[in-house]
Write a structure and sequence with these properties.
Number of helices: 2
Mean pLDDT: 83
Distance between the termini: 31 Å
Largest sheet: 12 strands, antiparallel
Low-confidence stretches: 43-48, 114-121
Radius of gyration: 18 Å
Number of strands: 12
Helix content: under 10%
Shape: elongated
Order of helices and strands: EEEHEEEEEEEEHE
Strand content: over 45%
């Protein structure tokens, strides 16, 4: 089973009596003998993952496409990017995750507290294992930014899409630049990444 970039907004999954998981409702066309069914949260944790998803609010809803043929995926005319995972763990915004193939597991992990005063817990979806992932980005293609020990990276959480590598995430609160550009609702915070790895962002905010 292989994911192919059909165009900048369409992903093609070539199935040979194999299966692929995708965001519910993202199939736009298919050829051949393909069966569709709900894949729930899509991870290996089954019921536990479903309970965790409800408790944390992470909204990952997947369908399984299985059989022999070609399935085409797209969502809201967003641009798409295929990323290969080789035993790594990818931290990703659940609404940006469109297609998964291979031996990949999804889960929800605790990402920390949003500021010391609010105490609100934040959670993130992780994908780990070997296989391909197709991600969505709005406003243009994904922008991949390298993080090194000498150069930590701070990003707007509404622009963040995914991160991988040996990275530590923390939260920066009371960010004056967010207020300056009009993001003054509620407690302002942004994501700070330290270590070695790659953080991918989209040109448009959610």
């Amino acid at each position: 089973m292989q994911l192919v970039q059909r165009s900048k907004r369409v992903i093609e999954a070539r199935l040979n009596n194999t299966a692929v998981r995708a965001m519910s409702g993202s199939m736009v066309a298919y050829e051949g003998q393909i069966n569709f069914k709900s894949a729930g949260f899509g991870g290996g944790a089954g019921l536990v993952a479903g309970i965790k998803q409800r408790a944390t609010g992470e909204s990952l809803s997947l369908m399984e496409c299985a059989g022999h043929g070609v399935v085409y995926f797209a969502h809201d005319a967003a641009e798409t990017t295929i990323i290969e995972l080789a035993g790594e763990t990818l931290q990703v915004e659940s609404e940006q995750l469109m297609v998964l193939n291979g031996n990949l597991n999804t889960n929800v992990t605790f990402a920390g507290l949003r500021g010391a005063t609010g105490g609100q817990g934040l959670f993130t979806t992780t994908v780990s294992g070997h296989g391909q992932i197709a991600l969505l980005s709005r406003g243009g293609p994904l922008i991949h930014l390298e993080v090194s020990p000498q150069y930590p990276l701070v990003v707007d959480p509404d622009a963040f899409v995914c991160a991988r590598g040996n990275l530590n995430q923390s939260f920066v609160t009371d960010v004056s630049w967010r207020t300056a550009i009009g993001h003054d609702a509620g407690e302002a915070f942004s994501l700070r990444w330290e270590g070695s790895g790659v953080v991918s962002i989209q040109p448009a905010e959610r």
